Amino acid sequence: MNIVNSTYVAALAVVLTLTTISSAHATSSKEADALSAAKVSLVQAVDMLEKDGKSKTVGAEFDIEKNIAIWEVKMLGDNGVLEYKVNANTGTILKIEDEHIRGKLMSFITGITMQDLKNEKMSLAEAVRAAEKKFNGKAIKVEIEHENNSVQYDIFVYTPAGTHKYKIDSITGTLLN
Predict the structure, then answer these.
(1) Closest Cα to residue 41, out of 74, 87, 81, 82?
(2) What pTM did the predictor assign?
(3) For residues 153 and 164, what is the distance between their CA atoms, to the nearest angstrom?
(4) Domain spans, the chain
(5) What percent of the chain has pLDDT over 90?
(6) Residue 176 per-residue DSSP state
(7) Which residues of 61-86 are buried (b: 16+ CB within 10 A; e: fewer)?
(8) What confidence tens digit (pLDDT) does each residue in 57-83 have?
(9) Which fold has domain 27-169?
């Protein structure tokens, strides 16, 4: 195995490990309180970042960093993936990180392209709204997958009774679980 292949294999292992860890997303009481108090929803953060039409959201998650409630929103554009950290109380962009390597690996792993996202009939924001309404809660995380020749959203909705996962096909708008 040459050095380039071994580097990609190592990087892929790290991404898969991080994905597994983040998939076990549990909301603490501190996070639940911060989410309830947040003035900016996941949908509002996504709408603000997608306004220019040049990039599409490929993932978002609620978090608390340095005692500030934030939305971490990953955006795919022509130049790769950028992660925006948006203050969940003010809507202010606190930081933008270049996810160049992780973005390339994300495309490699998921197979998602900008064209796939442009072909969707139901936007990520519409899918999140539907999941929040169905479970009468607030979305805390959304992931995008490319399965069965379509883009699918995995939306995690927090309610006082627990966190629910909602999977929807972006082309048909069909609930898959």
Answers:
(1) 87
(2) 0.74
(3) 13
(4) 27-169
(5) 43
(6) -
(7) bbbeeeeebbbbbbbbeeebbbbbbb
(8) 989 999 999 999 999 999 988 777 889
(9) Nuclear Transport Factor 2; Chain: A, (3.10.450)
